[in-house]
Please model this.
Amino acid sequence: MEDEPSSQESQIEEQKTEDISQSPQLDIDRLKHHVRQQGRLLDALSRKNESLERALVGTSSKMDRLLGVLVEERKERRMEVSALNVRVETLNDKVHAMRLAFRSCKKKLIEVAANAIVDKHKGEI
Model:
């Protein structure tokens, strides 16, 4: 019976030795697999990054063009506003001239009416 435990112990020792001897190789294989997997992920990320950089450059160019268009439109709007301001000033000047003419006409009308009343009273006297 003592042989059996020793035989069993030796089998356990052999198994431990095999596990230990295989364990580093398994770890190395796992690490190699992990490194390959990480390399593939890095390649995929690099391609995605390049794609995003190209898209960013394209977007930047579009933004620059749109900004140029907006600047030109703003200049045009400012010129239109300036032209409208000149027109408003011209119309204000005309309105002022018409008010002065109206006051002058009103004074003349009052003067003529007053003279007519005076002439009418002179004729009665």
Summary: The mean pLDDT is 88. The two ends are 171 Å apart (CA to CA). Residues 91 and 97 are 10 Å apart (CA to CA). Residues 3-124 form the longest helix (122 residues).
